[in-house]
Specification:
By secondary structure, the chain is mainly α. Helices cover 57% and strands 0% of the residues. It contains 5 helices and no strands. The protein has helices spanning 17-30, 33-47, 49-56, 60-66, 75-84. The longest helix is centred in the middle third of the chain and has 15 residues, at 33-47. The chain starts with 16 loop residues before the first helix and ends in a 10-residue tail after the last helix.
Length: 94
């Protein structure tokens, strides 16, 4: 009997503000910049790329390119997307 695996889709689990906050907290604690960019992309996809594009003033296709594997987006692009998600950066001293 052949085993069928279903592709994992992180966006299915980002269905509440608490889940999003916990996800970003975990990613930030790891300190991997590429994973942070992927995480923001997952959240944007979960919220709807068209809506995020409209709120951020960026093109939808541009957003998909921004969060494609291996991309190196500019900080101002990430900041616009984070703001359009209703989130903000907060830094505290360790």
């Amino acid at each position: 009997m052949e085993t069928q695996l279903t592709p994992f889709d992180m966006t299915q689990y980002l269905d509440s503000e608490e889940a999003i906050a916990e996800y970003l907290t975990q990613v930030l604690e790891e300190g991997d910049t590429d994973e942070l960019i992927r995480a923001i992309g997952h959240i944007a996809k979960a919220r709807g790329m068209s809506q995020i594009a409209q709120k951020s003033g960026l093109g939808r296709e541009s957003l998909y390119k921004t969060f494609a594997p291996g991309s190196k987006p500019r900080f101002d692009t990430i900041a616009k997307v984070v703001k359009s998600l209703g989130l903000h950066f907060h830094i505290t001293k360790l």
